[in-house]
Amino acid sequence: MNILITLLLLPVLFLLSWRRRISSRKLPxxxxxxxxxxxxxxxxxxxxxxxxxxxxxxxxxxxxPISKLTLFGKPTVFIHGQAANKFVFHGDSSMVANxxxxxxxxxxxxxxxxxxxxxxxxILKQYVGNMEKxxxxxxxxxxxxxxxxxxxxxxxxxxQNFQEMIEGMWSIPVKLPFMHYNQSLDASYRKKVKxxxxxxxxYQDLSTSLLSKRNEENERVVTDKEILHxxxxxxxxxxxxxxxxxxxxxxxxxxxxxIHKAVFLEQEDIAKGKISxxxxxxxxxxxxxxxxxxxxxxxxxxxxxxxGLRVALKDPYYxxxxxxxxxxxxxxxxxxxxxxxxxxxxxxxxxxRFENQMSVPPYSFIPFGGxxxxxxxxxxxxxxxxxxxxxxxxxxxxxxCLDDHYIRDPMPVPTQGLLLRIVLKKQx
Length: 428
Hints:
Elements lengths: L1 H23 L15 H9 L3 H12 L2 E6 L2 E6 L2 H9 L5 E3 L3 H7 L13 H4 L1 H16 L5 E4 L5 H11 L12 H17 L7 H8 L12 H32 L1 H16 L9 H5 L2 H13 L5 E6 L4 E2 L2 E2 L5 E5 H5 L31 E2 L2 E2 L3 H18 E5 L5 E3 L3 E3 L3 E7 L4
Parallel strand pairs: 2-8
Antiparallel strand pairs: 1-2, 3-5, 4-14, 5-8, 6-7, 9-10, 11-14, 12-13
Helix pairs in contact: 2-3, 5-9, 7-16, 8-9, 10-11, 11-14, 11-16, 12-16
Keywords: Heme, Iron, Metal-binding, Signal
GO molecular function: heme binding; iron ion binding; monooxygenase activity; oxidoreductase activity, acting on paired donors, with incorporation or reduction of molecular oxygen
């Protein structure tokens, strides 16, 4: 009988012990809100009217730099500041791991590589020529002979599926017909079917590379499912960061004529050293230092990624608070990049902030995350952006037809597209 009573009491004793441990290392302030939904709707609404930063600033004023809430179906801790960014990106990997929301994993697949390591930039050099061909083709099709260009989302069926996927990546993971999440799952399924049928294989090089991975017994080490999910990941990541950055660079250059002229002079000097029709090289891109500073300032003011999530693997302890195992940890890039105590006059577009990398405080500029967990697509984005800007500034001038506001859903997008009036420059 005593043994039976002891067995019955064990769960109760364990629960009491767990609660005492939690109480001795307190949880962050704040409310988890309504089950599953929590504060997700409030944040998403704020992002869609471009007040996401203010939404988090209000939380900081109310609760301080660390607070708890519920986002995208899971209990979450929001942390803010340079020290918080360091904790997320450079902390103990046995305590905190990179993990996306359940909605993103369901849409992209659960076998995608959210982090790559050991990649050499030499691998990307071979793609400069291919990327340049695609840029020239795009300019010829969409810019030449047109007085106005509207950089909008193409409504072609395949690309429409792609856009619907993106819109639901930050959403409450509830499968209801009218929810973004459900629509994104449907779009993801249609896109996976097309890729599996090989009716749309824009990343054949990636597919070939993954197929070629074999072990010492000459057996494939990457499954078909992993190949498919990683193609989906690369398509989303590669599209968003570059397209958003280029869009807002065109916008900021139009609003800042002196900066536009400086970019043009740098790119014209490179163009003068090329024989007619000669492609850009890796070495040419290395010379585009000022242009890349303009890109970094654009990323500071309009980062493609508003924030991101990690997951507590154990019970990490930070800032005097316990983050329970399994909870999400949310960081926001805007919170430090637009902080006037870190960047003077943060609303002013000023590429000279990046003339000396040492002048940028550590863990304050994080559009691609931070070392050692920096986004593997950052170098790809740099190449694509510099190639596009080179041909646009040397061949065209432009002005904004509409100084439009932008929303986040979840990427920043001008509400009516970026409508430009363009003029082809006379080639010397």
